[in-house]
Every structure is written in C-alpha cells, then in structure tokens.
Here is the input.
Amino acid sequence: MAIKRIHARSPYYITSKDSPIAPPTSTIEYFSANCGDVKISDGFIGKRIYTLVMTGDTGDITIDYSGGNTPVKISIGYDGGLATTGYVGLDAYDSQLIALGIDPSDINTGPTSTKTGSLVLAKPTTSPLTATITVDSPIVNDNLSLTFDCPDVPSTAPTCPDRALVFQVCNENSAKDDNFNIYLNDNFIGYLDLSQNAQVGGIFIATTNTNANVVSGDFACPLTLMATNRFDPSFLVYGTNILEMRNAQLNNNGNYGTISVRNYLVDGNNLSSPCVVADMVFGPAATGTSFTLSFDYTACCPED
Here is the structure.
C-alpha cells in the first residue's frame, strides 16, 4: 500500500495498492555503427555512444537526425575535432534542462521542435577510421532516428616527393602475347605492344616530367626494347587501384605475364633504384582476353 499525491500541485492524496515506480535510471550504452546504418532510439535516458567505422575516404561525416520533442544533444568526435547540435527539441522542456544543470547557451530548442537536421564534421585524413557519435538525453527520450553517412571522396595517393611510381611489363620468356590498351582507374595511360617473340615490354611512369626515363630497373628486358609511357600522377588513389588491360590486338599466342608496380628514386630526369609496391599476374588465358587487376597503394615502399 502506498500513498500518492494526485498530481504535483494538488493538496490531496490517494492510497494505492501499486508499488511505487522507480524513476528512470540514467545509463551509458555503447553501440557500433557502419556507413549507411539507421539507428532508432526510443525511451532512453542518459548517454548513447556509437563508434562509426569508416573507410579511408575523405570528406564529411554526416549524421542526419529526426525525432519528436524531447531534447537531445548529438555530437561527433573525430581525431580531436568536435561538432555538436547542442540540445535540440521543443522549448517547453527548457526549464527542465536548466534545472538539470544544462547551460542555457547549450540549448537550441524552439517553439516548434528543432529535433530534425544534419550534423557535419570534416574527415580530412585517411585515418583514423573511426568516429564517435554521442547522444545525450537527460530527460527520457521520446524518439530519435540517426542515419550515419560516411565520407565518399577517394583520398589522394601517398606523397613520395623523391620517387615516381612505375608500372613495368617485361616479356621475359620471349613468347609473344596480345597487345593492350592500359587503363588506370578508368584513365587511359598508354599502349602495351607484346607482339614480338622477344624480351619486349612497356614502362608507364606517373609523372608530369616529359623527359623522365628509367635508367636502371629490376627487369630482364633491355631498356631499348621497353616502350616508355607517361601519365598524370593524379590518376592514382590511396588504397585500391584498378589496372585494366583492354585487349587491342590478337597475336594468337595466348597471354601470360606479370605487371610489376615499383617506386623509383628520381634524380633529375633519371629514375633508378626501385622499391617494390606490388606484382600482378595476368593469365594464363587465351588470346583475345582482357584483364582487370588491382593493387593497394598505401605507402611509397610498403615492403621496406
């Protein structure tokens, strides 16, 4: 048996057989989130902390939010940066927030609920790959929907001021293959002619220097039989790069070989002393085949 006041301003009491109801308990809860997730939060009081897992892309971390009237504060933290909404919702709750110790300058409510919008924080770097999204609800929350949008701008390739990246194809076994148009991330970078039964091949240099040439490499083909192509270094991206060999001429001897990815030291116009980035095998496959290969580029000399 319990005695209860009818309501806060009434001088009258009633007796009840119900047990007293404990007030809501403020808690801290932890959740994970991925790009594109939608999280619904209803009827909680306290703090909810989401760890958002992202890719190496750069751009804006965006949290789209919508809900009812009860105020909440949403914050994004990334690599020392912070963005926050302040408390958004209906201004009828302002006195309760202030009574709970919330600074009035942190209250962004309105006569119509402000609990709808987007919170944005820049992600200018490829790492770290996680952000922290915090929801503070000092009053029992009615409802809240969060959509987690990740940056989607591919980041630039590693900066290697003393090196130039090179793709090299050497026909070491002297058995001819087909000829190919070579594309990097859907950008044409040159023509590869493997039509001779000889140690021929091609070199593709990421450089704006039209006089740049490999003078010493780690392949068997004579430099005089390696055709040199140069392409815009901005075609390279951080992380996964796609290299396509689009068949351009059938030479009727099948296809099998290796494309080596190297970073060469630059000395004026001369490139030498390569370090290994990756090696990609194409084939064995029938004549007329095209190939799509990939390699990860996250460091100038990842094996050193």
Remarks:
- Residues 5-9 have pLDDT under 50 and may be disordered.
- The longest helix spans residues 94-99.
- Helices lie at 94-99.
- Residues 59 and 191 are 34 Å apart (CA to CA).
